[in-house]
Design brief:
heterodimer; A: 267 residues; MetI-like fold; 11 helices; B: 293 residues; mainly alpha; 12 helices; 4% strand; globular
Chain lengths: 267, 293
């Protein structure tokens, strides 16, 4: 086989791969405009599932819960995780190997065990103290717990890439802690904070298993709504709901692509 | 120094505290639960016993049954199959990206990653739409005699494997791409000049250089695949369920928390053994170099 034919084959393989990656999503979007409830036959273009969706109280509630959970957990996780990433960098000389393991724990633990461990724990706390009944608050805690390490690792990586002399310069100039934060750390960490913000949001919206096990009866999110609709065998608006989530993710991808461009130019 | 340690506490404590209180403690609680007896409603209760582990090993009222053992073996088998398929697809894909002009590469990588940002449940819904009875793909499979007519391609083990590959492919392509980008092409050309067969070029010039990426990718794919819950639950039938589904059932439908906790413990142990095996494998392939973790 000549090199040229080999390259053609490779290119063909790449397009097949793209088809494989995008077909499931495309099918969901396509059938969300189907006038009948079927994923086998397209009977004609219709917006009726979207009309039904926006008239369905349960879906609107789930949508609100998804947004509140994603935004709330991200806001908390970026602050806590950012501080953790900074602290790890600042005091790295103390060689706390175990701390790294602790931070990797939420990353490597299987979702299902993570979710179940938190569920049983929240049930026990609720029986014992009457606090933390399953609902948005328990989901928020669970989400923050799995977001924090990712934020910390991103912020930490950015700090490790910096010239350590910059910190000494701050001290030489007698910068107060707040000045150091305001004029040095925050500007320098902005790209890392922005990307960890996006990552934390995506992680929250992408999560199903942990949400599912820590949710209460009134804290259904969109993925949980879709899941229970499938389990009950009631599926009409599912493709439309799923399409909304797919669109949200593609918007975030577009934002991250645009955010990356100027940062690349500066370097 | 005093202010320094106060700042240390202020930056580290919230994060470490959240993980400790809301993940380490619950995990310890879950592990402890495995050693308790099953009370009413399947909830854990005293006294301490190994009953859950006996049940997990298959000893029940009706004598020994191999069902749980099969679930474990099936989980390992499906994980291995999915991981091998992912590797076979990811190698050419990662290589292809490095053959493109530099400014295009981030865009191609993003194209690979974006689908994995959508929710797992939605991705499975997508495959359900494609594999349902009566869809073009199912009709084609029926026409080729692969499945009975009127049957869909889902639920099936095939659908589960496709779902697993689909979910974890980006986790292999990214580290492999990073390895390919640093690849020393002089070695590859030297091997070609010496008339090495394509396989020999790959084995001796490409594989050793991309090994760290391959091993990192394998860890990122195999470990979450082994713990999969959503894909198997939605795309698989009863005969393709994995350990994660077994564990979850003990906490939802079946109602036997200590048994579920014992299953979770076994899951963690198998995962750790898997990590150890990968580490050893990486060291052997890499000629005593540390390549994993």
């Amino acid at each position: 086989m000549s090199a040229r034919a080999g390259h053609m084959a490779l290119r063909g393989f790449w397009y097949l791969l793209l088809l494989f990656l995008y077909a499931p999503l495309a099918v969901v979007v396509f059938y969300s405009f189907n006038s009948i409830n079927s994923s086998a036959r397209f009977a004609g273009f219709s917006l009726k599932w979207y009309r039904q969706l926006f008239g369905n109280e349960a879906i609107l509630d789930a949508m609100a819960n998804t947004v509140v959970l994603a935004v709330g957990s991200t806001a908390i996780a970026v602050v806590i995780g950012g501080a953790l990433g900074y602290g790890l960098y600042r005091y790295r000389l103390r060689r706390w190997g175990w701390l790294i393991w602790l931070i990797y724990l939420p990353v490597i633990m299987p979702d299902i065990i993570f979710g179940i461990a938190e569920m049983t724990f929240f049930v026990a706390i609720n029986d014992w103290l009457g606090l933390l009944a399953p609902g948005l608050s328990t989901m928020l805690i669970a989400h923050v717990t799995f977001q924090v390490p990712f934020v910390a690792l991103l912020v930490n990586a950015r700090l490790l890439a910096l010239d350590p002399q910059l910190f000494e310069a701050c001290e030489d100039l007698y910068a107060r802690p707040w000045q150091r934060a305001r004029f040095f750390l925050i500007p320098v960490l902005m790209p890392a904070i922005a990307s960890s913000l996006l990552l934390a949001l995506t992680l929250s919206i992408d999560d199903f298993v942990i949400s599912f096990f820590t949710a209460g009866p009134d804290s259904t999110t969109l993925p949980i709504f879709i899941w229970s609709a499938i389990k009950k065998g009631v599926t009409p608006e599912i493709n439309a709901v799923a399409t909304l989530l797919i669109v949200a993710v593609f918007l975030m991808a577009a934002v991250s692509l645009m955010a990356r461009r100027p940062a690349g130019k500066n370097r | 120094m005093r202010g320094d340690s106060r700042q240390l506490l202020l930056t580290l404590l919230p994060g470490v505290g959240v993980i400790t209180v809301f993940l380490v403690l619950p995990s310890i609680y879950l592990v402890g639960m495995a050693f308790l007896s099953t009370g009413p409603y399947g909830l854990p209760t005293g006294p301490v016993s190994l009953q859950a582990f006996r049940e997990l090993a298959g000893f029940g009222f009706l004598g020994w049954s191999p069902g749980n053992l099969y679930t474990l073996l099936r989980s390992i088998g499906q994980t291995l199959l999915a991981t091998i398929l992912v590797i076979l697809i990811a190698y050419p894909a990662a290589y292809y990206i490095t053959t493109r002009p530099v400014p295009w590469r981030p865009v191609l990588l993003l194209a690979v990653v974006v689908p994995s940002w959508t929710n797992q449940v939605i991705r499975s819904v997508g495959w359900m739409n494609i594999f349902a009875p009566g869809t073009p793909v199912s009709d084609l499979a029926a026409a080729l005699g692969l499945i009975a007519p009127e049957m869909g391609l889902f639920p099936s083990r095939f659908a589960v494997i496709v779902g697993l590959v689909y979910n974890f492919l980006p986790f292999m392509i990214l580290p492999l791409y990073a390895a390919f980008e640093r690849l020393d092409t002089a070695q590859v050309e030297a091997a070609r000049d010496l008339y090495a067969t394509p396989w020999a070029v790959f084995r001796h010039a490409v594989l050793p250089q991309t090994l760290p990426g391959l091993m990192a990718g394998t860890v990122l794919v195999a470990i979450p695949a082994f713990g999969m819950y959503v894909v198997t639950e939605l795309l698989g039938g009863g005969r393709s369920l994995m350990v994660g589904n077994f564990v979850a059932r003990q906490f939802t439908q079946a109602g036997n928390w200590p048994l579920g906790a014992a299953g979770a413990l076994i899951m963690i142990v198998v995962t750790l053994i898997g990590l150890k095996v990968l580490r050893d494998l990486g060291r052997r392939l890499g000629g005593d170099r540390e390549v994993v973790l």
